[in-house]
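Quick start: what a row looks like.
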Amino acid sequence: AEQLARELAWCVEQLELGLKMQKPTAKQKEQAIGAIRILRSERTPLPRKRQLMRSMFGDYRAQMEAEWQEALRALRAAAHSAHVQPVGEATRKKSQKVCRCRPAGGTKVTLDKTNEFRFNFF
């Protein structure tokens, strides 16, 4: 059921994008609007929806997978190229946020006098 909902949402999104981005003829526009109406209808039987999706998009599952892989590739590239730069003292003082520098040791776990386990973050 979840997979079907994803497939329906993808097909409807593709049809809506086609209507917005391209300049469809009157016939194409009518077909796309009718297809969207059928795909969103709860009364339309599942085989009819699948038949419509197959006729409009061909192998829509492969297209969905290719689009997902491309998005994943773009996200990985963005994550790989992202880097964190340390903020200078002047910028930190100008900012409205409270920043505390941590010691070089990082987080330490200590046992205090009562043998109680505590994290020492600061």
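That is the whole record. Strands lie at 108-111, 117-120. The radius of gyration is 27 Å.
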